[in-house]
Amino acid sequence: MADNIKLSKHDRFQVAWRHQFLQGSWNYERMQNGGWCYSLIPAIKKLYSSKDDQVKALKRHLEFYNTHPYVSAPVMGVTLALEEERANGMAVTDTAIQGVKVGMMGPLAGVGDPVFWYTVRPILGALGASLALSGSLAGPILFFVAWNVIRIAFLWYSQEFGYNAGSNIAKDLSGGLLRKVTEGASILGMFIIGALVERWVSIKFTPVVAQIPQQDGAFIDWSQLPAGADGIKEALTQYASLGATGLSNVKTVTLQQNLDSLIPGLAAVGVTLLCCWLLKKKVSPIAIILGMFAVGIIGRVLGFM
After folding, report:
1. pLDDT, greater one: 190 or 189
2. Exposed, middle or buried, 157 (CB in 10 Å: 0-12/13-18/19+)?
């Protein structure tokens, strides 16, 4: 083997590009090992000129491997650094390489879900859906572009971080860094989703709680309006100042208005928390959706929603 073999940025980028397809070859025995090995092929070819050494290296990376597909990038970076050291004659054994992979993939897997699946993706999806609901084509485009920019940038820069840190990055796994990242991402995700609950969940309870007669001047006296266009103009002017409650001399107060005056969006938050509780109890999401359909239809027919 030649000395001082160095992986170029182009070589590392080829690995990062292939690493996007980590789960393209998945099996129940060794999970993501096929995609992992496929990602390393450009680096293995660069580091080992001998066919036998290349075969041994690829077999070395066909061992069990499984983690979140995005946070796998720093593991890949560390592995590239170790393979580079081994190709340059340092005493890096197969066991050491596999040990670092196994030692990193577990803790990192716990970070990937809360950061990407529960925080970044829902936030971008909510923003894109909000724009789409308003009729803007920018909604799906925003989601697609932003998600892929974040995803590809994270894969590349976290792989570079792992490559530059080498085996020393494993020391951080025993500290509180990953725990803090996980907790912070979870809190941010819950905060954003909580802020969007009132926008996305709409519930209207229609039962009338009270009917209160209004004083003169608090409603439009239709009998006193002038005839013709002047009457229409006057009615619109009064409506602009009085609002919907000024259309009648009796103010009707519904259950929904009382709930909104107490805590706006209280019913929406309650339904959201109920769904979360049902999901925690292992109730099927399909069953929850069908149940909500049934409650909505019954409530509409009976007149309380």
Report:
1. 190
2. middle
Does residue 143 sit in the same domain as residue 257?
no
Mean pLDDT, residues 9-18 taken together: 94
Q: Identify the three-state secondary structure at position 7.
A: coil
Instruction: Phi first, then psi: give them for residue 11, nearest 5 degrees.
Output: -60, -45
Residue-range definition of the domain harbouring residue 54: 9-199
- DSSP annotation of 214: P
**pTM exceeds cut of 0.70:** no
What does the radius of gyration of the chain's CA atoms come to, in whole angstroms?
Answer: 30
* 16 closest CA partner among 126, 160, 124: 160
Give SS3 for 268. helix
Question: What DSSP string runs through 122-166?
Answer: HHHHHHHHHHHHTT-THHHHHHHHHHHHHHHHHHHHHHHHHHHHG
Q: What amino acid occupies position 37?
A: C
Give the helix ranges, DSSP H, for the chain. 9-19, 33-47, 51-60, 72-87, 94-112, 121-133, 138-165, 177-200, 229-242, 255-262, 266-280, 285-302
Handedness of CA 101, 110, 184, 147 (dihedral sign): positive
CB 287 within 8 A of CB 275: no
- Same-domain pairing of 187 and 274: no
Closest to 151 in 3D by CA, of 182, 172, 121: 121
The residue from 199, 221, 245 where one domain ends is: 199
